[in-house]
């Protein structure tokens, strides 16, 4: 299968590297804003660059992988879902309920599928099962990241820099809080999620502490993520989760 990636940053480069000698997937095309900036990437991985979404979608790609920004999802997803299956990692775009509903309608209309990888967190199987019978009471997410990923201010101690809803979190930190929207989508509730974001000048990992309560009982999960060296805001697991999703799409037995 030929992959067309949107973006040529840390995740896109990770994917290109990992899929270089893959039997099932080849990264053939990339949609970028400034082709001149990405000639080395294109050359290293044999990827054709596009700056126009129509030519990108009319190329030989079988599936699109978004690895850019929430804004890029808003801009390109409507035209993509008319033509191709798509994997989206900037899930914060779905904080907008109107956008979510209009994409659902378009996907149904065109018989396409949209895949949302679990990104930098886990436990979403449990949340989705509990939500199937409206059984979620509360979900709290406490994210701790190196201060330099969150603020230009020089801190000498840990500081809570945000407390609020998932929608507010991703609006203020669009490159750091996509995970909060993934929790809300899995729980099928934006109101059940309480988000705290901590900037820690001594942290070297991106840590997500998740606590869930509901009719099922109670669960806690801590993920201590190693960052992607090329973009420390992004966890290694977020990039890996796209590979995981691509692999599962090909399985005949699916852990559902
Ligand atoms: N779901 C999750 O758990 C996570 C989601 N993310 C999302 O993944 C995105 C990508 O992460 P990284 O690769 O680390 O970021 P990055 O900043 O290294 O790369 C993003 C690339 O997208 C490009 N880009 C921006 N707007 C574009 C547009 N309109 N068209 C084409 N290219 C465009 C930028 O030039 C940049 O090269 C983040 O912005 C974030 O939204 C990141 C981490 C975790
Ligand atoms: O990679 C992470 O740890 C989380 C992240 O940036 C996001 O959710 O946007």
TrEMBL record:
One of its GO terms (biological process) is NAD+ biosynthetic process. The iminoaspartate product is unstable in aqueous solution and can decompose to oxaloacetate and ammonia. It comes from Caryophanon latum. Keywords: NAD, NADP, Oxidoreductase, Pyridine nucleotide biosynthesis. The keyword NAD applies. NAD(+) binds at residues 120, 178. This is L-aspartate dehydrogenase. It comes from the Bacteria. The keyword Protein biosynthesis does not apply. The gene is nadX. It catalyses: L-aspartate + NAD(+) + H2O = oxaloacetate + NH4(+) + NADH + H(+); L-aspartate + NADP(+) + H2O = oxaloacetate + NH4(+) + NADPH + H(+). Signal peptide: none annotated. Its EC number is 1.4.1.21. The active site is at 208. Pathway: Cofactor biosynthesis; NAD(+) biosynthesis; iminoaspartate from L-aspartate (dehydrogenase route): step 1/1. Residues 156-243 form the Aspartate dehydrogenase domain. GO terms for molecular function: aspartate dehydrogenase [NAD(P)+] activity; NAD binding; NADP binding; oxidoreductase activity, acting on the CH-NH2 group of donors, NAD or NADP as acceptor. Pfam families: Asp_DH_C (PF01958), NAD_binding_3 (PF03447). Residues 7-117 form the Aspartate/homoserine dehydrogenase NAD-binding domain. Specifically catalyzes the NAD or NADP-dependent dehydrogenation of L-aspartate to iminoaspartate.
């Amino acid at each position: 299968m030929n992959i067309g990636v949107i973006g040529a940053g840390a995740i896109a480069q990770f994917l290109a590297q990992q899929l270089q000698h893959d039997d099932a997937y080849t990264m053939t095309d990339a949609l970028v804003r400034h082709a001149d900036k990405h000639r080395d990437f294109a050359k290293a991985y044999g990827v054709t660059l596009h700056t126009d979404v129509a030519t990108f979608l009319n190329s030989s790609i079988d599936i699109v992988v978004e690895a850019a920004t929430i804004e890029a999802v808003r801009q390109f997803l409507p035209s993509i879902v008319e033509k191709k299956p798509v994997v989206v990692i900037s899930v914060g775009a779905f904080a907008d309920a109107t956008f979510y509903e209009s994409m659902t309608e378009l996907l149904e209309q065109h018989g396409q599928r949209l895949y949302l990888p679990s990104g930098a967190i886990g436990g979403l199987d449990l949340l989705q099962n509990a939500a199937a019978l409206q059984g979620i009471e509360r979900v709290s997410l406490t994210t701790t990241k190196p201060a330099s990923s969150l603020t230009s201010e020089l801190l000498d101690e840990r500081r809570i820099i945000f407390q609020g809803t998932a929608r507010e979190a991703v609006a203020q930190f669009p490159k750091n809080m996509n995970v909060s929207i993934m929790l809300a989508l899995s729980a099928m509730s934006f109101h059940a999620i309480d988000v705290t974001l901590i900037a820690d000048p001594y942290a070297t990992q991106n840590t997500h502490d998740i606590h869930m309560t509901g009719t099922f009982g109670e669960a806690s999960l801590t993920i201590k993520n190693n960052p992607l060296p090329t973009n420390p805001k992004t966890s290694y697991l977020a990039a890996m989760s796209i590979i995981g999703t691509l692999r599962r799409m090909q399985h005949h037995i699916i852990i559902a």
